[in-house]
Amino acid sequence: MSHPKSGGGGLILIGVSKLLKGLFIVAIGFACLGLLHKDVTTELYRWAETIHVDPENRFFEDVVEKTLNLGDADMRHAAEFAFAYAAIFMIEGVGLLCRQYWAEWMTVIVTGSFIPIEVWHFVRHPSIGKGLVVLLNVAIFVYLIRMIRRQARHPELLTKG
């Protein structure tokens, strides 16, 4: 079912953001594959130099510390996870851009399932970025719930697609 009469702008914005997130995560998956059979720490320092990141940066040092003992199997698993995770975002994005009713439900379920985890991370280590992620996902969740409820009250907004 699709619904060309309702929620156009919001669905397009959410759909595009889901696709962009998916593409970013695909890039992470390929980066993990690129680290196979290499010293991860050396490669991270090389990447930092390429994109002009200060290797003394606390965030960068945390990343290096967490990757010190990662081997090929870990990188392969990380890539597999990234590709699977990206697929979910891409399916949501395409479905929303095609205005599929099922995609709204899928996005509500996926987004809603991550909100408690995001809140937990925010409470443990508060930051503006984490707070914004929580607020954005709550806003998407509420927006889609309202759309679904409105469509339930007004089924004429739905058309077969």
Number of helices: 6
Task: Give the end-to-end Cα distance, rounded to a whole number of Å.
Answer: 5 Å
How would the global form be characterised? elongated
Give the beta-strand count. Answer: 0
Oligomer state equals single chain
- Uncertain segments: none
Structural class: mainly alpha
Largest sheet: none
Q: Name the average pLDDT.
A: 88
Strand content: under 5%
SSE topology string: HHHHHH
Helix content: over 70%
Q: Nearest-angstrom radius of gyration?
A: 19 Å
Structure commentary:
With 161 residues, the chain is mainly alpha-helical. Helix content is 77%, strand content 0%. The chain has six helices and no strands. Helix 1 runs antiparallel to helix 4, helix 4 (72-97) packs across helix 5 and helix 5 runs antiparallel to helix 6 (128-153). The N and C termini lie close together (5 Å).
Can you lay out the helices and strands and say which pair or pack?
Blueprint: H1 8-34, H2 40-50, H3 58-67, H4 72-97, H5 101-124, H6 128-153
Helix pairs in contact: 1-4, 4-5, 5-6
